[in-house]
Design a protein that fits this description.
Elements (H helix, E strand, L loop, with lengths): L11 H14 L12 H8 L3 H14 L2 E4 L3 E4 L4 E4 L6 H8 L3 E12 L2 H6 L7 E11 L2 E11 L16 H7 L4 E12 L2 H7 L6 E11 L4 E10 L3 E4 L5
Helix pairs in contact: 1-3, 2-3
């Protein structure tokens, strides 16, 4: 670990903070790695525990570190930051942010639409829909479960497409239904056993849950999705005007 630069006039907590920041940015401390305890850092650098805690707290406020009660302090994984002022998909957003994205198809089948799905897609209850459930990974870590439904009568060949390397919106555009807008609802939830297992997190850990209906250029609803995002890996930006 990098030793603080004991420059005269620079508060000690800032020296600790910048030393830890340097180790994080230079990958001396890796995402998910537990950093030394406050007592260990205080002993190593000859500073008080209170000074060390203040430096660590600044990095927690910045989102570079996070605490787990009774366990310790860890380096935060890079977050997926979604700009919700624009409609982008996971692969597009990852490319913009320089994140290595991967999609694993968990379910790909055809089934009768339940009431919630049929209403969102303007279908009759029981009408066939294509169900595509995927796990999205960022730099190898699972971050999102995407549970999507699209009308079978509009996209009967969707399951023949490469759903792991191309987003379904690409195929929708090729079929004459380019995506134009979406309406979504978001709320905080706790991960149940299935979600926690897929996202490699603790049962009861926070997730950002979304329901989204996507519409094509001509106003046709073409996708309805239940989306489960890791609360510690996902943030969003929304522009507000008055």
């Amino acid at each position: 670990m990098t030793s603080p630069n004991k420059t005269n006039g620079v508060p000690r907590y800032i020296q600790i903070r910048e030393s830890l920041r340097e180790d994080i940015l230079n990958s001396v401390l890796l995402p998910g790695q537990k950093i030394p305890s406050e007592d260990e850092l205080a002993l190593k650098f000859g500073f008080s525990r209170m000074t060390v805690r203040q430096g660590i707290s600044d990095l927690i406020d910045e989102g570079l570190l996070y605490r787990r009660n009774g366990v310790g302090t860890f380096v935060t994984h890079p977050q997926i930051v979604r700009d919700h002022t624009r409609l982008t998909n996971f692969l597009e957003n990852a490319k913009i942010k320089g994140i290595e994205a991967k999609v694993q198809v968990l379910i790909a089948d055809i089934l009768p639409a339940k009431l919630r799905v049929s209403r969102a897609l303007d279908l009759k209850e029981g009408e066939l829909v294509i169900h595509i459930k995927t796990l999205r990974l960022a730099n190898g870590d699972p971050v999102t479960i995407h549970d999507a439904y699209v009308p079978y009568r509009i996209f009967p060949l969707m399951l023949q497409e490469d759903l792991e390397n191309h987003h379904i919106w690409e195929y929708m555009e090729a079929y004459g239904f380019p995506v134009k807008r979406a309406v979504q609802r978001m709320e905080a939830r706790e991960a149940d056993e299935e979600i926690a297992g897929l996202l490699n997190m603790d049962v009861g850990a926070p997730i950002l849950y979304k329901e989204r209906t996507v519409y094509s250029e001509n106003g046709t609803p073409v996708e309805f999705t239940y989306c489960y995002n890791r609360g510690d890996r996902y943030s969003l930006t929304v522009a507000l005007f008055r």
